[in-house]
Design brief:
Largest sheet: 8 strands, mixed
Strand content: 5-15%
Number of helices: 17
Distance between the termini: 73 Å
Strand order of the largest sheet: 7-6-5-8-9-11-10-12
Order of helices and strands: HHHHHHHHEEEEHEHEHEHEHEHEEHHEH
């Protein structure tokens, strides 16, 4: 590394190789880390990833074009070094500048204002585009500097693009597997920025090492809260997602995951009843016509449903299935998940759990849909066939499907697919935004349905009455969803945009009749 490099001096192959490798790391690491910046507000659905990947690819393409043109006009090593240094500075400011946009997004999501949501989403993504454009300029610029003869142009280009791709591979796995879990999102951006600034010094000289040193000093800045929310008592970024626990003034604790719109678990000190969708599942066991013995909850989250089942049906063995071990730990610490000694928690995805167990269940609760988006592989014929195989005779599967008032498209699609595998499928609009879709192994006549709901814990009678009053039948879909074709996000996006255009709000919702202890 030298202090001064004349503009016409050809840099060494090691310096250019290090710069190209570092740029490859920076571009992909910025993309991966940006996904974690967005997840607490927008989730991590295919739509979010499609937007993020699309902007990164577009930025790289623009960078390749600009880099090639600039290199032909000014093939100066120090200019390339400055480009990388500016890219490092852009990466460093992303988590700080993105914060205000993301905080504005909270209000936009609460009111379902499409303009606020889309505007903030695009704004955050555009913050990540400038450094990626600059990093895209590196490879064609470096090739222009490295080629000394047309006879070796192919070999030089191949070597530098191989180094760039190798750096991109490191940029994918280093943040996802090491940096984000170890130091968090903000500091991961800063580590990337330090690495880029350091690589620029191979062309700018050792006196520019002050730049990575100053960026490294930013690592001492405390990240602070990921999402500024009143009553926030715990938050973390696990290997899978953002996790936040909020305590309201009335003592309730709420669990937020990723997008933060839906509440995934609720805890009350004075009762296992919450007034939310979890109470609806408590009305279902009497439909069996026999004592509840075995339950599987796919999407256990903080254990709200399992905790309540342990009180009202204490003889039932419960398997709580939760993909994220960190959520299970938070459930034990903040949501009383350890209150039920008959609960066994399995930290695994829902579908692999069913494939790996030989148990058959009286009731399978599918509460793994990250509202409002439904993981497609938990809403297909193949999944529902697997569910049917693990239901005991007379067993029931209950799906918590989010929707918007007066829009049954998602419920009809999911329920219609379930009806392709089970002989009777019913829908119960338990709340304004939540419909419980029931699949019955053995069909029940209307009289038997009402008679069975007439018995059960007296405290839950108002909820059972709502179920008996509001339930209706769903028919088999003409084109049930399959693992090969399940356009769930396309359907959900249309549903949300239509609702937002009509001025709808995404507020917390409760059962119309809330039993009190």
């Amino acid at each position: 590394m030298t202090d001064r490099s004349p503009a016409g001096e050809r840099p060494g192959s090691f310096a250019l190789g290090a710069l190209v490798f570092g740029a490859g790391i920076g571009a992909l690491a910025t993309e991966i880390t940006a996904s974690r910046l967005l997840a607490p507000y927008f989730g991590s659905s295919t739509i979010v990833w499609a937007n993020l990947i699309g902007i990164v690819l577009g930025a790289l393409a623009l960078g390749y074009w600009l880099g090639g043109r600039l290199a032909d006009r000014r093939p100066e090593p120090r200019l390339l070094g400055r480009i990388v240094l500016v890219a490092a500075l852009c990466v460093a400011v992303v988590p700080f500048l993105a914060k205000p946009f993301l905080e504005l997004t909270v209000d936009g999501l609460d009111s379902a204002s499409a303009g606020a949501v889309v505007g903030s989403f695009v704004a955050v993504l555009l913050l990540c585009a400038p450094p990626v454009v600059l990093l895209g300029m590196v490879s064609p610029f470096a090739i222009r500097l490295a080629v000394s003869s047309i006879d070796t142009a192919g070999a030089v280009a191949g070597r530098l693009y191989a180094l760039s791709t190798g750096g991109s591979l490191v940029g994918v796995f280093l943040p996802a597997l090491l940096l984000i879990p170890a130091v968090g999102t903000q500091r991961t951006f800063l580590v990337i920025a330090v690495a880029l600034a350091t690589s620029s010094c191979f062309l700018l000289g050792s006196r520019f090492l002050v730049a990575p040193a100053l960026l490294a000093a930013l690592l001492l800045v405390p990240p602070g809260a990921i999402k500024a929310e009143e009553g926030l008592i715990h938050e973390e970024t696990s290997f899978h997602q953002y996790i936040g626990v909020v305590e309201r003034a009335d003592g309730r604790r709420l669990l937020h995951l990723n997008e933060g719109v839906a509440v995934h678990s609720v805890w009350r000190a004075d009762s296992v009843l919450t007034g939310g969708v979890w109470d609806a599942f408590l009305a279902l066991p009497p439909l069996l016509g026999r004592p509840l013995e075995r339950v599987a909850i796919l999407g256990n989250a903080g254990g709200t449903t399992a905790r309540a089942l342990g009180v009202y049906y204490p003889d039932a063995e419960i398997d709580g299935v939760e993909l994220d071990p960190a959520v299970s730990r938070v459930g034990r610490e903040f949501f009383g998940m350890g209150d039920n000694p008959r609960l066994t928690v399995h930290d695994v995805d829902a579908r692999p759990f069913l494939r790996s167990t030989d148990e058959r269940f009286d009731l399978i609760v599918v509460d793994a849909y990250r509202q409002p988006y439904v993981p497609f592989y938990l809403a297909t014929r193949e999944f529902f066939r697997l569910v049917r195989e693990h239901l005991a005779p007379g067993g029931i599967v209950a799906l918590n499907v989010a929707g918007v008032p007066d829009d049954r498209r998602l419920v009809d699609a999911v329920g219609g697919t379930l009806a392709a595998e089970l002989p009777q499928v019913l829908a119960w609009p338990a709340l304004r935004f939540n419909t419980i879709v029931l699949g019955m192994v053995e069909p029940l006549a209307a009289t038997a349905f009402s008679e069975r709901l007439a018995v059960g814990p007296a405290e839950l009678a108002p909820i059972r009455e709502l179920l008996a009053r509001d339930v209706y039948r769903l028919e088999r879909a003409d084109r049930p969803w399959t693992d090969d074709h399940a356009p769930v996000e396309w359907l959900t996006d249309r549903m949300i945009v239509s609702y937002a255009a009509e001025g709808g709000r995404l507020d917390e919702d409760y059962l119309p009749t809330r039993p009190e202890p």
